[in-house]
Specification:
This protein is α/β, with parallel strands linked by helices and 376 residues long. It is 47% helix and 15% strand. Strand 12, helix 13 (302-313) and strand 13 form a beta-alpha-beta unit. The chain is globular, with a radius of gyration of 22 Å. The model has no long low-confidence stretch (mean pLDDT 93).
Length: 376
């Protein structure tokens, strides 16, 4: 039983794959199936430690980005992609997995193109409201497609497509409350706000949050993931912004929140301020937390804009455009939500209704059904 995963070089592509592997392992153990062999083909391993932990073999295949605007780099990346297809063809022919699972992204194109030529069945998972070009291409011959947002169904064959949500790793499905205040050194009597800008942080969000800290810390504690590369800069600004501000200890800055810290932060928080990556959105929804979503600007990421809009339409979050974001607007929205138990309750209920906690399990079942039926 050989299962090959492929996806672009981001956490939004990589970590849902790990969630699916977790559920496949659970089903295999429960049903006493032969233990699968897992492979991950991409232009980089993204997280070698996690691949090792789950016994996933990394297979390198070069890939080039296809830009929608003119750039000399398109010429070189075109050659790189062609070479990547040749490499993927040879490596897939030698390995010949039972199924290729595609999460999308430019790095997935050589493997899925090679799988098409070799007639290896392909399963797609699309996390965004508007599918990427690789998944749209793969959707023309995929055996099954899992989507996170209803509107993505317009891009795939209806009879092969199911609304499943985004696979979330088991350790992040349920917030951790026991011992969380002690672990994070928080006061149990003061409400907590969590600010997430993605693993790399978000400079504009960081700047505005730091600007309003003197006001925020009067009433709230703040857990702030700033991005590992931004720690030094934020520390320098804190000395100026906070000065003699009371309750400085209420601000907790992290470069990156690991799984334990993130699950504990979710367990103690009353509100999340975040970017609009789909994995983050579905994690927050599963936690049942109200949120303020600030997507990456439209000219940089149309995906985040649509994801944020769909989440906000459900009533689970408030959408703030970065182009209109000011310290006053953000502080006003925070206070509006945090001072109203009714608003918090309603947003929490809508978040749970939006969540689809069985996404990883459903994807695992589909993948195993194809493998076990030897469908070609």
């Amino acid at each position: 039983m050989k299962i090959l995963f492929t996806g672009g070089g981001s956490g939004g592509h990589f970590y849902p794959i790990i969630a699916i592997v977790q559920e496949i392992n659970a089903i295999v153990q429960q049903e006493k199936y032969v233990e699968p062999k897992y492979y991950y083909m991409s232009d980089n391993p993204y997280d070698e430690k996690v691949l090792f932990e789950y016994n996933i073999t990394f297979i390198h295949a070069p890939a080039g980005k296809l830009r929608i605007y003119f750039s000399p780099k398109n010429i070189f990346d075109g050659f790189r992609t062609f070479y990547g297809i040749c490499v993927a063809l040879v490596k897939l022919f030698i390995l010949f997995p039972d199924v290729v699972v595609c999460k999308g992204g430019y790095a997935a194109f050589p493997p899925v193109f090679a799988a098409r030529i070799l007639r290896i069945p392909v399963v797609i998972h699309e996390s965004d409201s508007i599918p990427g070009r690789v998944n749209i291409f793969a959707g023309k011959f995929a055996k099954r497609v899992g989507i996170a947002y209803e509107e993505a169904a317009n891009f795939f064959k209806k009879n092969l497509t199911a609304l499943v949500g985004v696979p979330i790793r088991r350790e992040l499905v349920t917030p951790m409350r026991v011992g969380a205040h002690e672990f994070l050194k928080l006061d149990k009597t003061v409400p907590v706000i969590m600010v997430l800008g993605g693993s790399q942080g978000a400079q504009n969000i960081n700047d505005i949050v730091v600007d309003i800290l003197p006001e925020l810390l009067k009433s709230y504690q703040v857990i702030h993931q700033v991005g590992s590369l931004n720690i030094a800069g934020i520390k320098d600004r804190l000395n100026i912004v906070l000065g003699t501000t009371e309750h400085k200890e209420r601000y907790k800055m992290f470069g990156f929140l690991n799984n334990t810290a993130l699950a504990m932060s979710a367990g103690v928080s009353s509100l999340v301020i975040t970017r609009a990556g789909s994995t983050l959105i579905f994690e927050i929804a599963g936690w049942g937390l109200p949120s303020i979503v600030i997507p990456i600007p439209r000219d940089v990421s149309r995906d985040q804009q649509r994801n944020a809009l769909n989440f906000a339409r459900s009533g689970a979050s408030v959408l703030l455009e970065e182009s209109n974001l000011t310290p006053h607007i953000l502080l006003s929205e925070i206070d509006r939500i945090m001072t109203s138990p009714d608003i918090q309750k309603q947003m929490s209920e809508r978040a749970r209704a939006f969540a689809r906690p069985e996404a990883a399990r459903k994807m695992a079942e589909v993948i195993l059904s194809l493998v076990l039926s030897h469908e070609r």
